[in-house]
Design a protein that fits this description.
Enolase-like, domain 1; about 20% strand; 13 helices; about 45% helix; DNA-binding; 3 domains; alpha+beta; Arc Repressor Mutant, subunit A; homodimer
Chain lengths: ~350, ~350
DNA sequence: TTTTAGCACTCTTTTGCCCTGACTGCTAAC
DNA sequence: GTTAGCAGTCAGGGCAAAAGAGTGCTAAAA
């Protein structure tokens, strides 16, 4: 599979994928000849196609049909454009569209990710996703506030370096002695401040028995809130847009396949798993036909966006194998730049990141 | 259309819909005769069917086919079961399932609605929805807290009688004089406490110019948060479950119809509009083939659940016209009861509702 | 040795046709 | 008013022929 192809074979293979992406139909030798290689005859191309078929790049659906690309062919095709310079397929309108929408909304990182997913999906017309990893793992609790309200209630406010958790009121059984609440707040702070979310996961109550004493009930509630937060928000950073667009492509005209696709794509955990299983260190990954994920028959292109050297998240597109790779890569590349500008620039989107 | 049908016509029509719901195939006179009306001949039934066709209840897909029900027939069918006593189609397992799941999770009303939607969809195998109206309109602001944090930030905490809004931190431009924040908090409370969300919508800053003075920036932020909340959370009370289940039914094997359905059903505003356009005062509504909503070809059954006389929300099912109406109505009825029990019972789910 | 033209061959897709099965509507008798 | 019987209609399946699309092979040309 690795032996170097002749220039002509390369050209033929590339052309074939191009045509197939454009039409979705098996490509015949005559098509290739007339549209890409008028200098040789179709018979010659046939001979080359035979060779390429033997090498495992392409196949015929049946004897009297043209050829369609196999995964190897797509990989070859993608390699040939990935590093290349020909990677600005975007029209001025498109870049303007991206740019405008990107700076349109200023909000938290969630908004931005969601917006980015929408833009990508709109421009490419494929299903897109964005996974925000900037908050993964190292969320540290800054400060816990216990705020008394009217009617014997209190609110727990948990401030982290990345944002804030405010939860439902908790009951304060005692008849609301302000000092009690205040002391409880102080103890909570003492115990939790500086801890990370990871630390909380396997937090053992017994460790700090001596300090809690009368605050055990409040303490339990806070721990419950934190744990609830962790479990509920684990998939909050996954955004999928344009899931229904896949149904426009002939590959997904079969209702069962469509249903299968939609059920995978609307499960954020599944999406997250698919995306994050990619190598973090690579800027672009293209995976064609991932088995055992429920979305075989698909190609997935992912781009990692970074600030400095740190990966902040991933954005990508999922579409049919026969996909406009050039355009998708162009769009993702552009969005990557936007992300870097916005996130790395002077204007932080996260109100808790400003200083230090 | 209104003239009273003969008893035999009624029986035939009802049987026909029954059979059609069960099989999905056009129903022939022989089928009806052998399964429902052995006392008369198929020829007689044919004559009756002819008459029913003339009356607009049924039609033939083509001359040599059986009859299929039209909307009028479904309406007739539904009327005949709605008020009837035969409305407990549920097996013991099913009621147990509903019961268990209902009391399984205790949380806020959001959780409950979502859970209810899931249960309904699971038991009926149709797409379900729940719209929670309990928080509509009359949400009153109880109290506003302005809480200073470290690093020149503060949090606005808005407590309403129905819950809480906690938003991102706001910047406090001045070098954090605690008294400043405290005073600001007091002013905010004075202005907003007791107001409803509706009041805020068309709130005019100028009204209270004299009091704000130096707090204008904070004031603006709070107002912004409130408005944002109103717009963002307007569709938070719509829950749809099992949208993909519709794709299992032969009516939606066509990919375009499926796409159309999914795009409507995943737009919460659209769903909300469809549901809430129903008459509030009726316990059950059944609408078959609503035009101009994007979900024609569907039947929608809605039940309003109440506490006392007050409608708390609506739950329902959307499925093909050929739907197991009896079962759906049974399920909705049961869930309605569950809702009333839980919401009206001693145990309030909303932590802010306890007293008074 | 490589390329090309030409032709036979293969396989899918479309078309037309006929036949069967499933109903109905009509009519004449009960 | 009801029924049995029969003729008529139409969709759908099966089958065969025809059309179309491409290839592989071979022999000749470059």
């Amino acid at each position: 599979m690795s032996k170097e192809l002749s220039e002509r074979k390369k050209k033929i293979l590339h052309s074939l994928v191009d045509l197939y992406i454009a039409t979705g139909q098996p490509v015949s030798s005559a098509d290739l000849q007339s549209k890409y290689l008028p200098e040789v005859s179709s018979a010659t191309i046939r001979a080359e196609l035979s060779a390429l078929e033997a090498l495992g790049y392409i196949e015929q659906p049946h004897t009297s049909a043209g050829r369609i690309p196999l995964k190897e062919a797509y990989k070859f095709y993608v390699d040939s454009i990935d590093g290349s310079n020909a990677c600005n397929m975007l029209t001025d309108q498109e870049t303007a569209f991206i740019r405008n929408n990107f700076f349109n909304r200023l909000g938290q990182i969630e908004d931005l990710s969601k917006e980015a997913a929408r833009i990508i999906s709109d421009v490419t017309n494929y299903t897109s996703f964005v996974v925000d990893q900037s908050q993964d793992g190292d969320v540290t609790i800054d400060e816990i506030k216990l705020i008394p309200l009217k009617r014997g209630k209190a609110v727990v406010l948990i401030v982290t370096d990345k944002g804030m958790i405010a939860d439902k009121a908790i009951d304060v059984k005692e008849d609301v002695k302000p000092e009690y609440i205040e002391t409880a707040g102080r103890v909570l702070n003492k115990v939790f401040a500086g801890k990370t979310i990871e630390d909380i996961k396997d937090f053992d109550l017994k460790e700090i028995d001596n300090e809690i004493k009368g605050f055990k009930d409040i303490f339990d509630e806070v721990l419950g809130i934190l744990r609830m937060y962790i479990s509920e928000h684990s998939s909050d950073n996954v955004f999928v847009e344009g899931a229904l667009k896949m149904l426009d492509y002939p590959e997904y005209q079969n209702i069962d396949d469509a249903k299968q696709f939609l059920s995978v794509i609307s499960d954020k955990d599944a999406v997250s798993e698919i995306i994050l299983s990619e190598d973090n260190s690579i800027e672009f990954t293209v995976r064609i036909g991932k088995e055992d994920s429920g979305v075989d028959k698909c190609a997935i292109i992912t781009a990692a966006y970074k600030v400095g050297d740190e990966v902040q998240g991933k954005a990508g597109v999922i579409g049919p194998e026969r996909m406009d790779y050039k355009k998708v890569i162009s769009v993702l590349d552009y969005v990557k730049k936007m992300f870097s500008t916005v996130l790395g620039g002077t204007k932080s989107l996260n109100p808790f990141d400003d200083e230090e």
